[in-house]
Write a structure and sequence with these properties.
The structure holds 2 protein chains of 2 kinds.
Chain A: H1 2-16, H2 20-35, H3 39-50, H4 57-70, H5 74-85, H6 91-107, H7 110-127, H8 132-142, H9 153-161, H10 168-174, H11 176-197, H12 207-232, H13 238-256, H14 262-295, H15 298-309, H16 313-330, H17 333-350, H18 355-370, H19 377-386, H20 390-395, H21 398-413, H22 416-424
Chain B: E1 9-10, H1 14-49, H2 57-79, H3 88-91, H4 95-126, H5 143-164, E2 167-168
Parallel strand pairs in B: 1-2
Helix pairs in contact in B: 1-2, 1-5, 2-5, 4-5
The chains are: A mainly alpha, B mainly alpha.
């Protein structure tokens, strides 16, 4: 009965449109009131949930992403990508995919990625005669790589939600190959549509230009290297490497590129604070929610429910993917990860999936949700920049959606994509 | 939760003026706090490798600061409609009902914030012991819960007044 109250109130608040963090918190409060337990316990859970040192990586990664977004690094990355692939048919579409992938690595956030790249690429593509819906779809899909990159704060959120079964050091290298896979799938989709619509071919600017633009963009891209090397060599923890990334971003944008102003810095810092507030509040209230879900053994119930339908791992993984996708379309990324991980991770592990691989699967599922209404944050930002409606974009989304789904299925059913690199680096046993 | 398309005048009530200042200064405090946290963690790395003597206080203090940053940021998010909720299903409803649901959402947010304030106060009063490694009492952790809750209540009331008068709250930060 208590569990029914928890689920029903949560769904009711969510459908009403209560912001997710408050919907989660309120449903937990309603359940505790029904049980007649003291509310203070719940808020103690919430505060201790927000107060763990490794969580500090979340505001740091968000902050460094915002600094990179407002610090004018986007242009340099676009120029480098254009020199690389701009000459192929539909070159600006391919440029967009490569640039989004690189900036995704720099910012670690699909939303920051689509804001930065969309602002540069969408008007540019419009100018050069590309259709707006194409420009938006390319940007919103390619920018999803940001969620899988070493600078992704959503990875940290997953390691928290997984409750100690996964270390950030193991998860961070695991995202790189899937991110590249997603990039390749997006490139194929972008090229396919470009050929079908007969977009123009450009001229290769020569290797000198490639090297010149690469050197200009390199200091920005180095942030990924710093984090990876720092964590893998054991010099830094994830949190410490994130703090170094912020410091590096500040030095880079203020002193090296000299594109940062105090005004932009305050905008970036304020945005980082607000996102931190939203995300860490979610982490806090989800601790309440997880406490109750643990109490009512939700994971066990879900496990026996799924196993009741089938014991075949292939079917179980498919069902988990569908459920994750459905939940991911209604909630934002952090909330989906925080709520779904404790429910589905035990089932997936029992069916033979490595927790690191499951992390990449859940991130990809949430990425799908970012491009699907009703709560499609990335898609919404892309449409806002281009000034067209979500409906217009949805009409031609299919090739790009297929690319995303192909990546998801490959990562779900071929563990090697996510596990080979961490195994080679020795951060995952086996 | 905010209907941007409503052609509304900016909210000019006294509460709105007060809240604009409040959210602006809360944000300054939070930005300062975030910069301090970055500095503390960087200092921790620096002193471990260069001074060979990691400070015991940096980690503990950073964890106190993050609570202020989080809850002040979350409150500012309520004023500037930064929290993500679903509104697509409500678009289908007639405008009158939609406006009433919008009010209900603000009331629900206030209810949760009131729980934050009350329980933060109760927990803070009980927490008279010292935080390890810091010359601070444990109750400083619960202060942001109370302050954040109060701000969320004030900001939500502002939104309710603005919605009734068909006005719009102008965010203090974009």
């Amino acid at each position: 009965m208590a569990l029914t109250i928890l689920c029903l109130t949560f769904l009711l608040f969510l459908i009403l449109g209560v912001p997710v963090a408050f919907a989660i918190g309120l449903s937990a409060v309603c359940t505790i009131l029904y049980e007649g337990l003291p509310l203070a316990v719940l808020f103690q859970q919430m505060m201790s949930g927000m107060n763990i040192f490794s969580f500090l990586a979340i505001p740091f990664f968000v902050f460094s992403g915002e600094l990179m977004l407002h610090g004018g690094i986007a242009d340099k990355i676009v120029k480098f990508s254009e020199s690389l692939v701009g000459h192929v048919r539909g070159g600006l579409g391919l440029t967009n995919v490569v640039a989004c992938t690189i900036f995704g690595g720099v910012s670690g956030s699909p939303v920051a990625d689509v804001s930065a790249m969309g602002a540069v690429m969408i008007p540019l593509m419009k100018d050069k005669g590309y259709d707006v819906d194409y420009a938006v779809n390319v940007t919103t899909h390619a920018s999803l790589t940001g969620a899988l990159m070493p600078t992704s704060h959503n990875m940290i959120i997953y390691t928290l939600a997984a409750g100690g079964t996964v270390s950030a050091g193991a998860l961070i290298p695991a995202g790189i190959v899937p991110a590249i896979l997603l990039m390749v799938c997006c490139l194929i989709a972008a090229y396919y549509v470009a050929v079908k619509r007969g977009y123009p071919v450009g001229i290769f600017p020569g290797w000198n230009e490639v090297v010149r633009t690469f050197i200009a963009a390199l200091p920005g891209m180095l942030v990924v290297v710093i984090i990876l090397v720092g964590i893998l060599s054991g010099v830094f923890t994830a949190t410490e490497s994130a703090s170094v990334a912020v410091t590096y971003s500040i030095i880079l944008t203020f002193f090296l590129y000299r594109t940062m102003t105090w005004e932009k810095f305050m905008i970036a810092a304020a945005k980082a604070v607000k996102t931190t507030g939203v995300v860490l509040l979610l982490v806090g209230v989800s601790t309440m929610f997880q406490y109750l879900m643990g109490l009512y053994e939700v994971a066990e119930l879900m496990g026996s429910f799924l196993k009741g339908i089938s014991t075949n791992p292939i079917v179980i993984f498919l069902m988990i993917n569908i459920l994750l996708f459905l939940l991911g379309t209604f909630m934002d990324m952090a909330a989906t990860i925080l709520i779904c991980t404790p429910i589905f991770l035990p089932v997936a592990m029992e069916a033979g999936m490595h927790p690191v691989q499951f992390g990449i699967v859940i991130l990809l599922n949430c990425a799908l949700g970012l491009n699907t209404p009703p709560v499609g944050t990335t898609q919404f930002v892309g449409c806002a920049i281009a000034g067209i409606s979500v409906g217009q974009v949805m009409r031609t989304i299919l090739p790009f959606y297929t690319a995303l789904l192909a990546t998801l299925l490959l990562v779900t059913y071929v563990p090697a994509f996510s596990l080979t690199l961490p195994r080679l680096l020795g951060v995952v046993a086996g | 939760m905010e209907h941007k398309n409503r052609a509304a005048r900016p909210s000019q009530s006294g509460l709105s003026k007060f809240n604009a200042l409040l959210s602006r200064y809360a944000m300054y405090v939070a930005v300062f706090g975030l910069l301090c946290i970055v500095a503390m963690v960087v200092y921790q790395v620096f002193s471990r490798y260069v001074l060979n003597r990691p400070p015991t206080w940096a980690e503990s203090l950073a964890l106190v600061f993050i609570l202020y940053v989080t809850l002040f940021g979350a409150a500012a998010g309520v004023r500037d409609a930064g929290h993500i909720g679903m509104e697509s299903l409500l678009v289908l409803l007639p405008e009158k009902i939609r406006n009433q649901i919008e009010l209900l959402i603000h009331v629900l947010v206030i209810a949760f914030a009131a729980c934050m304030v009350y329980n933060g106060f109760v927990l803070g009063m009980q927490a008279n012991y010292k935080i390890p490694n810091l010359p601070l009492s444990e109750w400083v952790r619960y202060v942001p819960l109370v302050l954040g809750g109060i701000m969320i209540i004030l900001f939500s009331i502002e939104h309710i007044i603005a919605a009734i008068k068909d006005e719009q709250v102008i965010p203090s930060w974009h």
